[in-house]
Design the sequence.
């Protein structure tokens, strides 16, 4: 079955987790993206558009390298390949999110959503006149699987995040740049992340293009449904 799905789809499924909640001041977002991903000798470039509604699902329309629809609900994700007329429905017990989009959207949540995830501020310090470093501890009940978290802000904009394993080694590092302001928030248009593992490290670079906030989403996206004559394969994940 994984041979039928794109590597990007499998990546989303393997990173199902608790999601951030968007601010009430953000209702709808439409933004194009380019995702570059490298693991060992494998490279992947994906281009598409994300349609986010705080009242509805997240819809991702991928144009390259394959024509694909992804519709993310709270506990379900539909994948549809129009050219092959194949569809899959993944039912999960945990909320479904789009990991790299949560990194973009997380700026609307206080302290990047760490408090909602049970983290507590350990201490903070200032560096120079414009840099704030904050250090976070995971909730005690999850300290066996979650490590410390570091967030760095420069001039009020998120600049760097580092997530550690419980043993203190680094699990991932993210750099945020090329911010755009909407209201009181600064959204990073480029996010560069390195994830470390025993086997090898992976590199991911996300570039967001022309984000549009609180706009009316296209009817063909909001009202999209998988054609009735297409058989949907149900999968428990």
Sequence:
């Amino acid at each position: 079955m994984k041979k039928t799905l794109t590597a990007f789809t499998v990546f989303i499924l393997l990173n199902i987790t608790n999601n951030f909640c968007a601010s009430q001041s953000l209702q709808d977002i439409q933004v194009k993206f380019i995702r570059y991903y490298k693991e060992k000798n494998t490279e992947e470039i994906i281009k598409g558009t994300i349609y986010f509604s705080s009242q509805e699902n997240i819809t991702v329309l991928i144009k390259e390298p394959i024509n694909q629809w992804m519709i993310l609900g709270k506990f379900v994700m539909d994948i549809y390949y129009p050219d092959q007329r194949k569809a899959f429905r993944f039912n999960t017990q945990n909320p479904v999110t789009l990991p790299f989009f949560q990194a973009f959207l997380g700026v609307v949540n206080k302290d990047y959503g760490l408090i909602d995830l049970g983290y507590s501020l350990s201490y903070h310090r200032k560096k120079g006149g414009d840099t704030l470093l904050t250090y976070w501890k995971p909730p005690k009940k999850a300290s066996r699987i979650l490590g410390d978290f570091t967030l760095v802000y420069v001039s009020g904009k998120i600049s760097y995040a580092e997530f550690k394993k419980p043993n203190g080694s680094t699990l991932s590092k993210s750099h945020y740049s090329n911010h755009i302001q909407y209201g009181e928030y600064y959204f990073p248009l480029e996010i560069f992340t390195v994830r470390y593992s025993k086997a090898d490290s992976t590199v991911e670079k996300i570039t967001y293009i022309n984000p549009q906030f609180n706009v009316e989403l296209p009817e063909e996206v909001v009202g999209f449904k998988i054609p009735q004559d297409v058989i949907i394969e149900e999968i428990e994940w």
About this structure: Residues 9-20 have pLDDT under 50 and may be disordered.
